[in-house]
Design brief:
homodimer, alpha/beta, six-stranded mixed β-sheet, three-stranded antiparallel β-sheet, 14 helices, about 45% helix
Chain lengths: ~350, ~350
């Protein structure tokens, strides 16, 4: 994989170099990154790029960005060869030594990094660039196989052995391998709910892997779930609050990705994800205490119903969102505590997991 | 410890019960939780409560809150006895079965929980209540000793064995024990910098424990550092961005706590913390790339200089903040990457750590 990326970078650079030798104008092309260049295909499972491209030809006007793009490619090459990493912030500061090709603000360097990512058709972690934020904790029936960065010795990390703590997902997960006999992955919105399930070792009773997303999952968390689910052929069940944010932001982003990052959804989406709860129907069935929807929630539901290709594709989601709109109420996953603190793991989850076919798509 | 809390709850409740039997008006008293009831004592090391108390006497007007306070104490008693936990959110939902003593909104139940916490003079984790949010990752020369929640068997979690990943701190850390030969704890603001130090096993070279705070540290993260530093007599060095937020919010909160939670600062402050960098003088000495201070940053500096008892106590901090105010510039910890990606661990940190006496207090 690493070698393929290295070769890709060298190919692109050689192309530019040869054009220059022939006294022709060099150019770099990359897919256009915008919602207008995206479609949703259920079989593929994510927002997919259409064919539109943008071309960066060397002219007086583009010379700085052109040079910056080449330097960014070169930085990536160095990172891969030296087995090092750079965060987006660090890449920006490194450019301070690129003389005239220096970036003046981080959004500019981020954007060129996105271009290189799209150009090489890989995710930026494969280019040696890591995200700034951490996020995602694991507990349960899983052994993560990493290696000691110094000795390259294999490290086996047993996620059943963390007590009340958990394994924290690194910012780049491309190199990890997995061993597991678990039956499914349960991805959980809140840290509080995760801690309850860990405290009572729900992962043992249900033979599963618990993942705390802590709100909208980070890139590393999404990629981790995707790679784990793919390589081990595991279903992914998602357990969020019953509200438009849980459905339209957390779940939808995990499952199919987002519009403005279409060139990487392929790597970060989790098409096998299915929505376990809390559904609007759960609010009725389990007589959950609710909070009234605010104006902004109602607007979000309308937006999703009108503009989101994923929702437009799935009648079940349209029905659920309309039901919530009419109820004008939302419920948090902790609302199940009304029936006792451990109702969630003694009744709600076991009942639900008997019928994955009833989960929202 | 657990038994002491249980006895405290029983004592208070028995007091109320006896008064009622004697047909007298029962009352509950607790420390007043506000900045007006706080002082900063460097020797103690945290914002400390003065003696002011508030009393909750049973009257027609207070009957609901009085009942809720007793029910909350009773919930805490159950949690401790059953070795269970409840998040603030869950405690709120449980109250939905308290009939007339039900809370109508979570801020009300949070506030009563704070009252009980202050009344018992413990932190709420000791009452069985856990915070909603997770946060804080560890890598390096540390073995955390937890226990299997089911079998009660000891679990030894070796934080040198996680490769590129890390140990994620649980939401409650009261029960953890530690083994270490490390020389210091390095608490780091950003996940990106933490990941760099982990990638290059800085903890091995420097014989230390790395902790990623991810911005302002959570309660669990602060308490973890405090307990670890206390029991193992370790110095704590703090490495944040060079900006008013890093100084006044992240570092100050870690070291002495915050004003509106004065009754618990005793448990959550880390008086042994010292500020390693990035200082305003570092920006000069290391010729770091900067960003201009915004209006809100300048205002924050003025506020700190005028109103913060911690800053008012320390001339060195006043000097540093004034220096930054005059430079009108801030620098991120990644700015050191200007001198090479690993300059931070090959030069900056080793140079600094030779002279802890020069750290800001």
């Amino acid at each position: 994989m690493k070698n393929k990326v290295l070769e890709g970078i060298k190919d692109k650079a050689t192309g530019v170099y040869k054009k220059i030798l022939k006294k022709k104008t060099p150019e770099l092309d990359m897919p256009l990154r915008s919602l207008s260049n995206v479609k949703y295909d259920e079989k593929e499972g994510y927002f997919e790029l259409l064919g539109k491209k943008k071309e960066r030809t060397l002219t007086v006007g583009t010379i700085k960005t052109f040079a910056q793009t080449l330097r960014m490619m070169s930085l990536s090459k160095d990172l891969i060869q030296q087995d090092d990493i750079a965060s987006k912030r660090e890449a920006y500061y490194i450019s301070k030594n690129w003389k005239e090709a220096m970036f003046n603000a981080q959004p500019d360097s981020d954007s060129v990094m996105d271009d290189v990512e799209a150009m090489m058709m890989v995710n930026r972690e494969q280019l040696g660039f890591i995200p700034e934020e951490k996020g995602g904790e694991i507990a349960g029936q899983l052994i993560v196989i990493d290696q000691d960065t110094e000795t390259k010795k294999e490290l086996r990390i047993d996620c059943t052995k963390f007590g009340s703590g958990a394994y924290s997902i690194p910012t780049s997960v491309e190199h990890l391998k997995f061993e597991t006999n678990a039956k499914f992955i349960l991805a959980i919105e809140t840290a509080g709910m995760f801690q309850r399930l860990v405290k009572h070792k729900y992962w043992k009773k249900a033979n599963c892997i618990l993942i705390s997303m802590g709100g909208v999952p980070t890139r590393a968390c999404r990629r981790f779930i995707r790679r784990l689910a793919d390589t081990k052929k595991l279903p992914v069940y998602v357990f969020t609050d019953g509200d438009p944010y849980g459905y339209g932001s957390i779940y939808r982003t995990l499952k199919v990705g987002s519009g403005n990052a279409a060139h990487i959804n392929k790597y970060f989406c989790v098409p096998q994800a299915r929505f376990l709860g809390v559904t609007p129907q759960d609010i009725v069935d389990y007589k959950l205490p609710t909070h009234p929807l605010k104006e902004v929630d109602l607007k979000k539901i309308k937006d999703l119903l009108k503009n989101d290709p994923f929702i437009l594709h799935h009648k079940e989601w349209q029905k659920a969102l309309k039901q919530m709109y009419e109820m004008k109420a939302r419920a948090e996953q902790q609302a199940l505590a009304k029936w006792g603190l451990n109702y969630v793991l003694e009744k709600y989850l076991p009942n639900k997991i008997k019928h994955p076919e009833k989960f929202l798509p």
